[in-house]
Automatic annotation (TrEMBL):
Highest taxon in the source lineage: Eukaryota
Protein name: DOMON domain-containing protein
Keywords: Signal
Signal sequence coordinates: 1-19
Keyword Signal included in the entry's annotation: yes
Length: 161
């Protein structure tokens, strides 16, 4: 009986420890839905995640991504130009992500990196909306990274606790 409980506890910690992982999706991924206007695709920079980028200068342009997970990150390079993407997570107030390099040398100056993170979220469906920051000419989408919570672990946790 004790052996059984110890086995379950051990399994719980093992399963729990590998339960979360970061998944990065490229701007070309079908899971990101581009609507309302022209988004141009660019494939010319090694500083972009997977070498690709979507960009727009249209106020109506919208990119939407829905996921079930416990965090989301916005990934992008930085430029010497005025570029800013507005990000809205669920019904939270939108945030403007300034993608201008404070110390530019080339037109695209800094390789892709995590620019913004949501902090911990409940493991439910969330929607991210990306658009142009009002008053700034260009907005871009390079990649999104989100934290996938293993459903086996969720099931295991609800069953054992
Ligand atoms: C995901 O990546 C972020 C940013 O690099 C990091 O802070 C976080 O610990 C990672 N989470 C997991 C579960 O790997
Ligand atoms: C990388 O971009 C190409 C298009 O240039 C796309 O076909 C491919 O699926 C992308 N790879 C990943 C891992 O998203
Ligand atoms: C964005 O960042 C750049 C570089 O630090 C700065 O010069 C610019 O004023 C910022 N733009 C806004 C709208 O905050
Ligand atoms: C500017 O970009 C070129 C080509 O991508 C690269 O070879 C060069 O090192 C960059 N210059 C600086 C100062 O980063
Ligand atoms: C969450 O999103 C997925 C994929 O869009 C969908 O299949 C599922 O029904 C959604 N679940 C809830 C609880 O809204």
């Amino acid at each position: 009986m004790y052996g059984h409980v110890l086995f379950l506890l051990a399994s719980y910690y093992i399963v729990g420890s590998v339960a979360q992982r970061n998944v990065t999706i490229d701007d070309t991924d079908k899971a990101i839905v581009y609507t309302n206007s022209d988004w141009s695709a660019s494939t010319d920079s090694t500083l972009d995640y997977n070498g690709t980028l979507h960009l727009t200068n249209d106020d109506a342009a919208l990119a939407t991504f829905t996921f079930t997970g416990t965090a989301i990150y916005f990934v992008s390079p930085l430029w010497s130009l005025a570029i800013s993407t507005q990000l809205q997570l669920d019904s939270q107030p939108p945030v403007s992500l300034n993608l201008t390099d404070p110390d530019p040398t080339n037109s695209t100056t800094v390789s892709f990196a995590v620019i913004w993170g949501s902090g911990p979220l409940s493991n439910t469906n969330h929607t991210v909306r990306l658009s142009k920051t009002p008053g700034i000419e260009w907005a871009v989408v390079d990649a999104l990274m989100w934290v996938l919570c293993n459903s086996l672990s969720s099931w295991f946790r609800s069953w054992i606790l």
